[in-house]
Amino acid sequence: MKRTRKSLLDDIKTLQANRKTLKEFAKEKYIDENGVANIHIYTKAETIYNPLTDPERPELADEIIDFIDSESYYIPTEYPIKVVLHSEDDLDESYIESKLKEHYWKKLADKDDDLKNNRIISLVLFFIGVVLLSAYFLLESLPQTKDLFNELFSIAASFSVWESVDYSLLNRNALKIEYLNIAQLALIQVIISDNERNES
What total number of domains does the chain contain? Predict the structure, then answer.
């Protein structure tokens, strides 16, 4: 039977009413009694590092990074994140944590550059818009200028100002959210499950 748009929306509303919010889901799955989000990883020593990197200073396997990225997506930024490694092998807790922090600090620096570039582009576009608008009003006051020429200045000025607003409000807000998400991971803590039990 073909489903109508209204029936689809009704079904979605029913589904939403019977499901937890993402925040409730995150609290239930990740957050412990200390208000820390725990991401549990079950791994072996031979699969935690990328075999293509320097064996003396190996990088973490892409699967580890991808898994942390996918799990942390649902964790609100106000919660610090702790990765709990479960393995029968001996793992270097401090080295793994340093490599994770290095990875996310590089991403954070890159996102910081994006925010700076966003600010510069926004200011440049706004300045161009102001100059073009000034030229438009100046030409409007001169009777010998052509209407079409004036309209081009008006359109270009409006476009520049709108793009400036788009960069400074919409794009920048999205970049800030991404920045906070990466910052949360840049402060990540790593612990081996046995060490966690010993500290308790």
Answer: 1
